[in-house]
Predict the structure.
Amino acid sequence: MKNNFFTLCVIVLIITSGCGKKEESKTTAVIDKQTTKITAEELAAAEKAAAVEKAAAEKATAEKDAAKATAKKLAAELAAAEARANKLAEELAAAEKAATVEKAAVEARATELALEKASAKLAAAELAADKSRAKELADELAAAEEAAAKARANKLAAELAEDCQKVYNLSQELYRAGKFIETMEILETTLRMEGCDEVLNSKAFYLIGWNYANDQGKLEKARAMYQRVVDSFSPGLKYVDKAEQRLAGYSLNDLAEAAYDNGRFGAALALREKIVEEIGYDKELKAKNQYLIGYIYQYKLEELDKAKEAYQKVENIHPKSNYIFKAEQKQTTL
């Protein structure tokens, strides 16, 4: 590049000097010829080099412009990224702040709930204590009411028992006066009275049965009343035991009737004799069986003397028996 520039300078110097010396003409011509040749080549080379350099410069400029554009774009992107980062940082800070506020609110609410739970637990404990106390008071009140009720019941029972005893005593006065129907009515009154104890009521039932059998001669009604005593009152009571004993006589009477119906007259006779001999059976039931002993001797065994003897014993067993008249009638047929 420097040689080309030097040659160009020489050519310009020669042209501008106006050298006209003759002796130098040949030399000048040669030089001009050579210079022209060199100059054109070098000029072309210089132009080419200049073009290349220009192109390089333009390329460099374009690259520089592109780099600037890229840098500008990158700067814009960086600014945008920084803006987004700042925004995200702000959002994060806001979120952290909100989280802090929310955490504080949650902690405050948790504290409130803990206080409420503690208050509820305390209230529950107080309520349990109140309930316990209320139950104690209710139990005390119930006990007091029960005691008062028992006291009233005992007082009433005593009054009723006294009344029941008075009614019973009246029945016995009527009985001793020979008023058997009135006695029955009075005894039945005690059965309808509330508060009469088992001992008195069982005795009243029993005496009604006894009255049916031995004063009125109604053996089936008597048997039903004795059964009622056994069914209605506690085992072991005096008149329950006596009623069971009376019922045993009726059961033997059933066996005697069954034996008679089956033609077993000897067995029937033995059973009826056992009823007559047994203590604790109704006198009317005994009188009936004594009469039937005579009947068996008269009509089945045809032992008339024994039949007559049997008929005569009926009145001795029970002077008020309905079978006395029947026995007397049978004796007239012997």
Summary: The chain has eleven helices and no strands. The CA atoms of residues 58 and 64 lie 9 Å apart.
